[in-house]
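Submission sheet (multi-component)
Chains listed below:
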Amino acid sequence: MQNSPQSPIIEASKLTKQFGAFTAVDAISFEVERGEIFGFLGANGAGKTTAMRMLTGLSRPTSGQARVAGIDVAAHPEKVKQRIGYMSQKFSLYEDLTVMENIRFYGGIYGLPRKQARQAGSQLIEQLGMEAFARKQVSGIPLGWRQKLSFSIALLHQPDVVFLDEPTGGVDPVTRRQFWEMIYQAAETGTTVFVTTHYMDEAEYCGRVSIMVDGQIAALDTPDRLKSEFQAANMHEVFLQLTRPKP
Amino acid sequence: MRAIPYIVQKEFLQIFRHRIMLPLIFVMPVLQLLVLSFAADYEVDNLRLHINDLDRSQASRQLVGHFQASPHFTLTGNGAGGAGQIHRGEADLLLEIPLGFNRSLAKGNRAEVQVAADAINGVQAGLAQAYANAIVQSFSRQFSGPTRGLLSIETANWYNPGQDYQTFMVPGILVILVTLVGMFLSGMNIVKEKEIGTIEQINVSPIGKGAFIVGKLLPFWLIGMAELSIGLIAGRLVFGLPLAGSLAIIFVFAGLYLFVVLGFGLLISTFTETQQQAMFLAWFFLIIFILMSGLFTPIESMPPWAQALTKGNPVAYFVDVMRLVLLKGSGWQDVQPHFGVMAVYAGAVNTLAVLNYQKTN
Ligand SMILES: Nc1ncnc2c1ncn2[C@@H]1O[C@H](COP(=O)(O)OP(=O)(O)OP(=O)(O)O)[C@@H](O)[C@H]1O
Ligand SMILES: [Mg+2]
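Outcome: structure written.
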């Protein structure tokens, strides 16, 4: 039952996180299918990062349950971790290491054999067209490149799901475009992509989108259906209708 | 477990990538060793001595001769009025040899000399009395033979006459330097990854906590051992540090000791959120550990509660082992209890650090 291809890759049921009296994530339930590109939207402070941290086993839910790749996250966080990739909202690479050194290190802690890690590393650098940066310290390369590199490293151990927390924040439109091409590539090879973003044009690229408001999921559907439901021309309007304070 | 070499490699790369780190870790401590050891020299020479010899006998003249031969004293006056001289700050020490001194000694009776010091500068007064005691004692032995100490004098136990003060201090200062470097390297380490955010990336990976901690400790352990070696060589070359016992004991003990210090640093790292907090905590413990290590204040002269506290102070154990082995030539058996305590300490601190490091919170 664990790895049956029919079962959803992510299942959240009544997932809740409280910080003291404050409820950051309020009993959210949803499912994500294998190979989906799932957009996780919400205003600042809506609870996206908190929810994602519970799904990745970084944070213990106050109540409710999360299953990823068929595994109960709270019960077996370490098992889940072998199956997922994560790119946190904070910067996730070592700035004082070179591109190559970062790849080797992360390959190493995921248990990749040294030779395989080196091959994957040079392959990755070639794919990204980062040959010029390979021996440069990460602190010296542009943000867009760093984010693409972080993403590739999160995919290094071929996870079933990859969680991306605002991967394109502050990145220029051209590089954002390239980043989304990488997301599509990953999805084509069967990797499920769970991604948060503040860019509404990016929401249009997702298979399905959920919109969080104050810790709850206010809407969840494909972008097209959401637009017709809210009679909106684009996702931006849908988002505004849901998140704008009610008069 | 397979991940450990990758972590070690990464830590070494990061430490030595910053050009300032190499001198910071290896050159600064040697400089500190030199400065502190020279500064810790409490020897005082040319103390001004006033002698009032009331006996004017052969024995008393011999004793005076001993004082004159000592580099620690310069005779500045004799006869009555010494008390006034001390009072006016014109002399540091007054020696009074009573009438009948020679007769008492000749009869084989106890004889007494009176020593008074200007106690405004307490350390200097203590030293002056200790020097005087040492001279009287050696005179007494010479006069009456080693078995018959007719002039019994108490010597303060922290001062070992005839022993170079520096060789007494250098081993302890070395311990402090190794402790400082170890504690700060490890204490700042994990908390730094928390600040940057890279710790999340580690926590979301399947790496085991134990492997992670070991991978973090090993580089600092190696640096600590290298540090000690350099310090010992410098101590030997510059201060002629004696090596009465086995160097193997020192290094095996240091290896164990470093696991305590590094574990302690990591524990601090797991308790704090920023490098600043970690720094404060590390200093808090370091100051207590160092000041109560018996290096600057002898443990025997502390109040009982403080003496009890030093039993939980790893620095005190290492200082003791260094002195015992380097200066006294103690062997494995003599420092066995020290090893026992350190092993328990290392186990406890590192277990706590691993337990308190949470990949999920
Ligand atoms: N460790 C914590 N302790 C207390 N409150 C927290 C903690 N982490 C998050 N919060 C609060 O929970 C709420 C949700 O935060 P979260 O980071 O999940 O939002 P987000 O949707 O990711 O926002 P953003 O778009 O700004 O990244 C916020 O109000 C935040 O202040
Ligand atoms: Mg967030």
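Remark: Confidence is low (pLDDT under 50) at residues 152-163 of chain B.
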